[in-house]
Amino acid sequence: MSELATIVENLRSVAMTINQIANTIEEQFGSHSTMENTKVVEPTLTLEEVRGILANKSRAGFTSQIRALLQKYGSDRLSGVDPANYKALLADAEELTHAT
Fold first, then answer.
1. CA distances from 43 to 17, 46, 54, 66, 87 (A)
2. Is 47 helix (H, G, I), strand (E, B) or coil?
């Protein structure tokens, strides 16, 4: 077989495999409209995860800024912060740039 014929045969084989995978996914999850309506669930942050990240920031010299962020979210301690605010708290902590 020529090199071109081999390439064409390989492309057709790959296309067939992709089509089979698409059919399997569609069978498992339904039509495209069903897949579009499927809600992606973000993993929830735990107190321990947030504490670890904030501790690293504190060790890097951001202790006073971390305290200010905790107060911004309604507490002097991380345990008093509403878990619904963890993501926003971490986003604010990531923006800290000048350690004091």
1. 32, 9, 18, 23, 11
2. helix
* Helix (H) or strand (E) run with residue 84 in it: none
Alpha-carbon gap, residue 97 to 60, rounded angstroms: 10
pTM: 0.58
Positive or negative, the CA dihedral 71, 72, 78, 83 is positive
Mind giving me the DSSP string for 52-96?
HHHHHHIIIIIHHHHHHHHHHTT-SSGGGS-GGGHHHHHHHHHT-
The residue written with tokens 């890097």 in the block is 60
CA atoms within 13 A on the CB side of 68: 10
Domain residue spans in the chain?
A: 3-37, 47-94
Chain segment 17-66, per-residue pLDDT in tens: 888 888 888 888 876 555 566 667 778 899 999 999 999 999 999 999 99
